[in-house]
Amino acid sequence: AQKVTQAQTEISVVEKEDVTLDCVYETRDTTYYLFWYKQPPSGELVFLIRRNSFDEQNEISGRYSWNFQKSTSSFNFTITASQVVDSAVYFCALSEAGYSTLTFGKGTMLLVSP
Amino acid sequence: ETGVTQTPRHLVMGMTNKKSLKCEQHLGHNAMYWYKQSAKKPLELMFVYSLEERVENNSVPSRFSPECPNSSHLFLHLHTLQPEDSALYLCASSQRRGQGTVNTEAFFGQGTRLTVV
């Protein structure tokens, strides 16, 4: 069975601080996909990134970066120089190859104060 | 319109009412999903429709009845709900491919906030 664990329930930072959101996953599949979604107060889940299990290259997109480490089954997400607009709930998710159904973690609520 | 749209955004219903949630996707995807998001619980997959056929039902009570008349529309019919069914119901769509191929990401609507009184 698949499982995604986001141990941090809530994180509070002050604007311009860097923050890392942790994600640990479990799966028996050799091919799988990892995702991060952002859920602002409006409710919609906004897709941020998808990684497949064969690509362990870290990725950077503006202030966002992702660190995928297969050896520790982790897919952590770092926001550099956080901003108030980054305040949201962030979800890490996992899916098997060929199927788009997602197993979500419980989410981490990020509060960025001015 | 683009993306995935859900109506209504908010719904309050009594336990004896019958109501329906609607989802429409404008992305040309072939799969649609219903997820339930309750307070302090992970997002739970309820139903999956692929090419208008239900391919997954995650032990959802029969008081929830999905309908997918075409690849762009998905409904969730509700009847005799319980207060514990109060939650945010999210619809999503994706391009579902075969085994061993690239998995595309799912795009979500803004959800319907349901309150059962």
Record keyword descriptors for this entry.
A: 114 residues; 6-stranded mixed sheet; B: 117 residues; mainly beta; 7-stranded mixed sheet; 4-stranded antiparallel sheet; 11 strands
Describe this structure in words.
The complex is a heterodimer of chains A (114) and B (117). Chain A has 114 residues and is an all-beta fold. Chain A is 0% helix and 54% strand. Chain A has strands at residues 3-5, 10-14, 19-21, 24-26, 32-39, 46-52, 59-61, 64-69, 74-79, 88-96, 103-104, 108-113. In chain B, 35% of the residues are buried. With 117 residues, chain B is mostly beta strands. The model of chain B has no long low-confidence stretch (mean pLDDT 88). Chain B has no helices and 11 strands. The chains are: A mainly beta (114), B mainly beta (117). The interface between A and B is medium-sized, with 27 and 31 residues.
In short:
By secondary structure, chain A is mainly β.
Our Rg estimate of chain A from Cα atoms comes to 14 Å
| Rg over CA atoms of chain B | 14 Å
Would you tell me the overall average pLDDT of chain B? Answer: 88
Q: Pairing-aware structural class of the strands and helices of chain B?
A: mainly beta
